Amino acid sequence: QQQVKQSPQSLIVQKGGISIINCAYENTAFDYFPWYQQFPGKGPALLIAIRPDVSEKKEGRFTISFNKSAKQFSLHIMDSQPGDSATYFCAASSEASNDMRFGAGTRLTVKP
Amino acid sequence: DAMVIQNPRYQVTQFGKPVTLSCSQTLNHNVMYWYQQKSSQAPKLLFHYYDKDFNNEADTPDNFQSRRPNTSFCFLDIRSPGLGDAAMYLCATSRDFQTGNYEQYFGPGTRLTVT
Question: Who has greater pLDDT, A110 or B58?
Answer without folding.
Answer: A110
